[in-house]
């Protein structure tokens, strides 16, 4: 009999074959809930057995000794972060190095994406101590919530004064740049008031890839540890299904490329500039990236931990506090 797994995922294109049933398992009945916001507390959410989860929050949770979630090194969201740095259209800034001594807004301090963006900035020679940081909502439409947690440092890392939208502060020149995972409405229009900080994103991101050897992982697959312990084969089976859905989607997307005028150029660029295994899952294939992320978590003060990649992604029989 198949085991039913309720899985929370963002609405990624590449999950379409899984959602439509084109990709199936003989052992699992996967029911996908496409969510706009990931579960706030997946470990205690009765709706889901598995979920896309934050790499950063999983890592800091493990550093605290939390083993309720079993992480699988399948990076459901992966991407360069240079593109996530935006500025005002009228800003004179065009290089990461020019942000030294500046004022930067972030949509969340602990977010995996922003952790990687700060890593890219550090690679360019701009450290946390070289910037005044402000955490806040991107626009008026976004909620006012705590985006700093325990990481606030008066005079260095603070909430936006008065919770003013950061786009307004960019436009007025009170912020030099903002880190955001999603571009604001109208950003891609000709008349947008905002732009990417870097004019040649592809060149900067490719140079970063050639230097570090990977595309940063943002979200991973999380499974409730009790379920993984009860069915040790299940994490790999579910991960393989997600990978197969991506493979089938990419094959079809390359064939039916006329969804935007130049998406076919993007496929050609990826084929020329990246190895075919750039998005492969698994601990060994991603060991360096995982180790680098752990180093960033330590150096950025997100967690005081000596976790290794093997500690972070243990084999199922070695789940702490769970039966083999």
CATH structural architecture of the largest domain: 3-Layer(aba) Sandwich
Class of the largest domain in CATH? Answer: Alpha Beta
CATH superfamily annotation of the largest domain: Periplasmic binding protein-like II
Q: Characterize the main sheet.
A: 6 strands, mixed
Number of domains: 2
Radius of gyration using CA atoms only: 20 Å
End-to-end distance: 22 Å
Number of strands: 11
Strand portion: 15-25%
Binned, the helix content reads: 25-40%
If strands are numbered along the chain, what order do they take across the biggest sheet?
A: 8-7-6-9-5-10
CATH-defined topology of the largest domain: D-Maltodextrin-Binding Protein, domain 2
Unreliable stretches (pLDDT < 50, length at least 5) are: 320-324
Tell me about this structure.
About 30% of the residues lie in helices and about 20% in strands. Strands 8-7-6-9-5-10 form a six-stranded mixed sheet. A five-stranded mixed sheet has the order 2-1-3-11-4. The protein folds into two domains: about 5-80 and about 215-320, 3-Layer(aba) Sandwich (D-Maltodextrin-Binding Protein, domain 2), CATH 3.40.190.10; about 85-210, D-Maltodextrin-Binding Protein, domain 2. Helix 3 (about 110-125) links the parallel strand 6 (about 105) and strand 7. The chain has ten helices and eleven strands. The chain has helices at about 15-20, 55-65, 110-125, 165-170, 200-210, 225-230, 235-255, 265-275, 285-300, 310; strands at about 5-10, 30-35, 50-55, 70-80, 85-90, 105, 130-135, 155-160, 175-180, 195, 215-225. It is globular. The protein has about 325 residues and is an alpha/beta fold. Mean pLDDT is about 95; it is low at about 320-324.
């Amino acid at each position: 009999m198949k085991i039913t797994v309720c899985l929370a995922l963002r609405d990624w294109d590449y999950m379409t074959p899984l959602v439509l049933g084109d990709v199936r398992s003989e052992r699992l009945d996967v029911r996908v809930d496409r969510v706009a916001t990931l579960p706030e507390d997946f470990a205690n959410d009765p709706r889901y057995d598995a979920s896309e989860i934050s790499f950063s929050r999983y890592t800091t949770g493990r550093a605290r000794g939390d083993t309720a979630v079993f992480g699988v090194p399948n990076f459901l969201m992966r991407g360069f972060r240079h593109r996530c740095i935006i500025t005002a259209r009228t800003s004179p800034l065009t290089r990461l190095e020019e942000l030294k001594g500046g004022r930067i807004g972030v949509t969340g301090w602990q977010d995996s994406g922003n952790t990687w963006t700060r890593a890219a900035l550090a690679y360019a020679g701009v450290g946390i101590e070289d910037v005044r940081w402000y955490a806040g909502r991107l626009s008026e439409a976004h909620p006012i919530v705590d985006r700093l947690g325990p990481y606030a440092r008066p005079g260095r890392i603070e909430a936006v004064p008065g919770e003013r939208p950061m786009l307004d502060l960019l436009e007025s020149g009170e912020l030099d740049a903002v880190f955001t995972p999603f571009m604001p409405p109208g950003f891609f229009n000709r008349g947008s008031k905002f732009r990417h900080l870097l004019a040649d994103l592809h060149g900067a991101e490719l140079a970063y890839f050639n230097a570090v050897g990977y595309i940063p992982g943002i979200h991973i697959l999380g499974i409730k540890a009790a379920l993984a312990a009860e069915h040790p084969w299940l994490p790999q089976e579910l991960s393989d299904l997600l990978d197969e859905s991506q493979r089938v989607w990419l094959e079809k997307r390359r064939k039916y490329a006329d969804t935007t005028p130049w998406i076919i150029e993007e496929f050609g660029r990826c084929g020329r500039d990246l190895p075919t295994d750039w998005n492969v899952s698994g601990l060994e294939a991603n060991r360096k990236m995982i180790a680098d992320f752990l180093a960033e978590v330590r150096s950025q003060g997100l967690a005081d931990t000596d976790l290794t990649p093997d500690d972070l992604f243990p084999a199922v029989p070695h789940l702490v506090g769970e039966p083999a």
